[in-house]
Amino acid sequence: VVGLDNEYSFNSKSENGTGTSEYDSQPPSGAFSSSASTVVLNGVIDEGMIMSDNGKDNVPNDLHLMTEPYGVPCMVEIFHFLCSLLNVVEHIGMGPRANTTAFDEDVPLFALCLINSAVELGGSAIRSHPRLLSLVQDELFQNLMVFGLSTSPVILSTVCGIVLNLYQHLRNELKLQLEAFLSCVVLRLAQSRYGASYQQQEVAMEALVDFCRQKSFMVEMYANLDCDITCTNVFEELANLLSKSAFPVNSPLSAMNILALDGLIAVIQGMAERISNGCSSQQIPINLEEYAPFWMVKCESYSDPDHWVPFVRRRKYIKRRLMIGADHFNRDPKKGLEFLQGTHLLPEKLDPQSVACFFRFTAGLDKNLVGDFLGNHDEFCIQVLHEFAGTFDFEDMNLDIALRLFLETFRLPGESQKIQRVLEAFSERYYEQSPQILANKDAAMVLSYSVIMLNTDQHNVQVKKKMTEEDFIRNNRNINGGNDLPREYLSELYHSICNNEIRTTPEQGAGFAEMNPSRWIDLMHKSKRTSPYIVCDLRAYLDHDMFATMSGPTIAAISVVFDHAEHEDVYQTCIDGFLAVAKISACHHLEDVLDDLVVSLCKFTTLLNPSLVEEPVLAFGDDAKARMATVTVFTIANKYGNFIRTGWRNILDCVLRLHKLGLLPARVASDAADESEAPSDTGQGKPLPNSLSSTHMQSIGTPRRSSGLMGRFSQLLSLDTEEPRSQPTEQQLAAHHSTLQTIQKCHIDNIFTESKFLLADSLLQLARALIWVAGRPQKGSSSPEDEDTAVFCLELLIAITLNNRDRIRLLWQGVYEHIANIVHSTVMPCALIEKAVFGLLRICLRLLPYKENLADELLRSLQLVLKLDARVADAYCEQITQEVSRLVKANATHIRSQMGWRTITLLLSITARHPEASEAGFDALVFIMSDGAHLSPANYVLCLDAARNFAESRVGPADRPARAVDLMAGSVACLARWSKDTREALAETEAVKLSHDIGEMWLRLVQGLRKVSLDQREVRNHALSSLQMCLTGEHEIYFPHGLWLQCFDMVLFTMLDDLIELASQKDYRNMEETLVLALKLLTKLFHQLFHELSQLTTFCKLWLGVLNRMEKCMKVKVRGKKSEKLQELVPELLKNTLSVMKSKGVLVKRSALGGDSLWELTWLHVNNIVPSLQSEVFPDIDSENLQPDPVSVETDPNE
C-alpha cells in the first residue's frame, strides 16, 4: 500500500494530466486502524473548526495549519491516501489510471470504511478546508461513482452510506456530484433493465429509501435539480422508480416491492408532516408575458424563501415549456421554434444566441436535427453554431476530452463541408480557452480533423489497416504554426482515441448515461458555475407542484401493494400512505387527486362488488383489508370532505351498500335539528312539536325490514325464525363484532349531520351525488330494492338540505327538481312519493323562518302537491293538510307575498271537499282569519275564496259552513282597520291607491257572501245576515259612490234575481224567509245611502232596478204559490221607500213641460205592484194627474 503512494499522491494528475502534489516530499502515511484514523481526523478537523470559529479567513487559516505538526498536511495526506486506495480496481473504465495489480475487495472496503468514519465525524467542518473539500468534490466522488457500480453488495452499500453522509454534511458544495451519483449509480442499479443483479438492485433501493427518509431530501432534489434547466429531473425519476418498483409483476409481493413502498410512503409522509409546519398559500399561476433569456435568470437570494420559491417555480415552468417545445421541434423544427416564440421562450425575432442556448440547455432534442441545423450553410445557422460553441467551457481541457463533450450534444453531420464548419467553430472556441500548447486556431482545426479521422480509422470495422501511432504523429507534423506539437501530447491523444472511441452518433438521451472521464471533467467545470444549492426547511413551499407530479403513480402503487398484500402490517403501511395522500391533496386543494384516491379505496371495501357470498356481513367481518379500507374511506370523507368532488358518488355507493345490508346506524339520515332548531314562534306563543317524526315518516303500508347494525346482529342471534337456524359459531360472532366496531369507527352519520361545515363546491357535489345514486324516477312500478334506495337517498338529501339552511340557495334548485321528478313520475301511493311530499313540506316548515328572501320559492314548490296523481293525493291528503296547517301556524308571519299565500290558500281550499282533510284545513284557515290575526292585503281575497269554499262544502260538521261565513263577515273589521290606518299614516297618493284596493277587497267580500246566500242549505240565510252586517254595519269605511252602484248591480240585484229564479225552480227549505231577508237588505241599504245615491245622475236607473226587484218578488211563486209574506212585505217596503223619497224632495212632480221621467217611471212600476199606494203617499194630487200615459213610456223588462 505504501508503495502506491507516489503514484496516487494528492493531485497527482491534473485535469489535463499535468501537475504533482505539493506534499510528495513528505513520508507516506502507511496503514492505520479505523479507530486511530478517526481519532486523528476528528481531532484535526475539530482544531480547524476552532480556528475558523475565531474569525480567521478560511484559506489563511488552512495555510497556517499546514505548518503545524499533525495538522492539515497530515489530515489531507491521510485522506488523499485513503482515496488513492480506491484507484487500484482493475479495468474500472475510468481511464488509464487504473492499477493493474489485482486487489480483492478488502482494500477498497477498508478505505471506504475509514472515509465513511472521517465524513461522519468531520461532517460539515470539511468545508472549512478548501484542499480537503476539493478532494471530496473531485477525486473521492469520482472514485465513489466507480465503486458505486461494484458487483459487491458490501462495497455498494458502503459507498451509498458515504454519499448519504456527504449529503447530510456537505450537500451545499456537492450539488452536481449528488445528481451524478443518483442518476448514474442509484437510478441505474435500482432498475433491472440495465443489467444489475438482484443484489445490486436491492442495495440501491435500500440506499434510495435511506435518502427518502431524510426530511428535506426530495424537496431539495426538486428545487435544485428538477427546477434547474441544465440538470436532470432527479425527483421525478426517483418518484417514478419507487412507484414502479412497488408494483408486483405477476408474482406475490417481494422484499423489493415492500422496500420501494416504504420509500414512497416516506416521501409522502414527509410532505404530510410539512403541512403541519404551515400549509403553502394558494399557487399563483405562472405566465411568461414577455421574452427574457431563460439561461441567464438569477435569483436575488437563494436563502430567502420569498425569493427562491417563486424563482424555482418559474424556472420549472420554463423547463416544462422547453420540453414541450423540444417535442414540437423534433416533429418540425420550424414549427417548434415558432411555438417557442409564441410562448415567449424565444424572441419574436430570432437571434443566434437564443437559438444556440435552446439547443444547448434543452433536454430531449433530436440530436440528428440539431446537427443538421448547426451544419447548415445558411448564415443564421452558422451564427447559431458559433454561439452554440461559445456555451462550452473548454478551459484546461485536453483536446480529445473537449471534442468528446462537444460532439455528445449533437450528431456530427456526414457531409465534409458541414463537418468542416462544425470543427471550425469548435476549434475557435477551444483555442480561445486553451491556448497553452496550440499556436493558433488553425492548428486546433487541423488537429481536430485529424482526431476525427483517427477515430474513424480505429473504430470502423471496414478499415482493415489501422493507423499506427507513428502514422498519426507523422500526419500532424508542422501543423502548429509551422512547428511540431510535442510527441508526448500527440501520443497521449492517439492512445486516448484508440482506447475510447469518440461517438459521433450520440445516444438520444434515453436512460442514464454512464460516467466517463470526459463527462466527469465537464461536471467539475459546471460545478464552478452552477447556481447555489438551495437548502429547504420543513415547510411546504413546493409540495403542491411535487405532489401533483407524483400523485397518480403513487396512488396506483400503494393500491396495487394493498391489493396483493396478505399481512396486516403491510395493510397498515398502505393505509398510512392513503391517509397521507388525502391530507396532502386536501391541503393543496388537489380535488382530482383526492377523488382518484377515494375511487381506488372504495374498490377495496368490497362494498361495491356484487355479493357472491351467502352471508356478505360475515364475509365483511372476516376481511380485515375490506374493513380497514372502509374505515379509511369514511375517515377521509369526514376529515377532508371539503375537497371531495366526484368521489362522493363512490362513497355514497358504499353507504348505500351498508344500508342494504342493514349495517348503518339508525340515525344516519338525521338532520340533527329536531331538538335544537325547531322554530318556537308559531304565532300562538307555543312551540310546535316536529310533526315529521321518524314514526310518522314511515311509509304507510310499507313495512321496512329491521335496520341498524344491532337489528342485523339480533337477527343472527334469533332462533325464532321461519326456518330454524343453527346457533351461530364463535367465528360468526367475532365477524359480527368486528363489523360492528368497523361501522362505529366510520362515523358515517357525521358526513350528513356535519355537512354544514363543507365548502360550497363539495356540498353541491354531495347533493348531486345523492340525486345521481338515487336514480331517475321511472313511471310505473319499480322494484322494492330500487324504491328503498331512492327513499334512503332522499332522506339523506333532505337531511343535508335542512342542515344547510344558510346555503339553501346553493342546494335548492337540485333538490326541488329531484322532488318534482318524483312527483311527476309517481302514479300510485308509495314510500318514495310520501318521503318526497312530506320532505318538501318539512323543508318549508323549517326554513321559512330563516329565509324570508327565499319564501316565495319555497312556497311555490308546494304547488307540486297540487300536481300529485289523484290516487296519491287522496291517500295522503289528510297528512298533507296537517303539515300545511302546521306550516301556516308556525310561519304565518313569515309569509308575506301574494304568490306564497295563493299556494297556501289553494292547498287549504282543496281540502274543503275531502272528508278526512277538511278539519285540519279549516283549522288552519281559522288560524289565519280569526280576528284578522294574519290577514293582510296580500292574502285577504285569497282567504275569502278559501273560506267560501268551506262554506259551500258539504263535508264536515254541520256548523262549519256558518263558521266559514262568520270568518268572511268578521274580516270586514280588518278592512276598517286598514282604512283607518291608511288615512292616518300614508301620504295622499298612497292613501288613495290603498283605499281603492280596500274597496276592491270589500266588493270581493260581499260578492263571496252573495254566492253563499244562494246555497241550497240554510246557511244562505246566515250568509244574508252576514252580508247585511257588512253592508249596513258601522265600519267607518268610506267608499266612493261608484263602488256602491257596483254593489247594487253586482251583489244585491244579482242576488235577488238568482234567489227569485231558484225559488221558482227549486224546492229549497225556508226559501221564502231568504227572499224576505234579501228584500229587506235591499231596501235598508237603499234608505241608508239614499242621500248620496240621489245625487247621482244614474239614480233613476238604480231606483228603477229596486222597483223591478220588488215587482218580481210580488209575482214569484214559492213551492207553486205566491208568498203571503212577500205579498205583505213588498207594499210595506215600497210605501216606506216612496215616503222617504217624497220627504227628501226627490219624488215630486215637476213642471209638465217636457215631462218628468223619474216621476212617470216610478208610478208606472208602482201601479204594477200596488196601485193603491199612489193615493196613500200623495193624497193631495189628483189621481188623474198621477196617472202617466201608458203609451208614452217604455220600460225595460230587465230593469
TrEMBL record:
Residues 11-34, 672-708 are annotated as: Disordered. GO terms for biological process: endocytosis; protein transport; regulation of ARF protein signal transduction. Residues 311-500 form the SEC7 domain. Pfam families: Sec7, Sec7-like_HUS, TPR_28. Residues 690-705 have a biased composition (Polar residues). Keywords: Cytoplasm, Endocytosis, ER-Golgi transport, Guanine-nucleotide releasing factor, Membrane, Protein transport, Transport. InterPro entries: ARM-type_fold, GBF1-like_TPR, Mon2/Sec7/BIG1-like_HUS, Sec7_C_sf, Sec7_dom, Sec7_dom_sf. This is ARF guanine-nucleotide exchange factor GNOM-like. It comes from Nicotiana sylvestris (Wood tobacco).
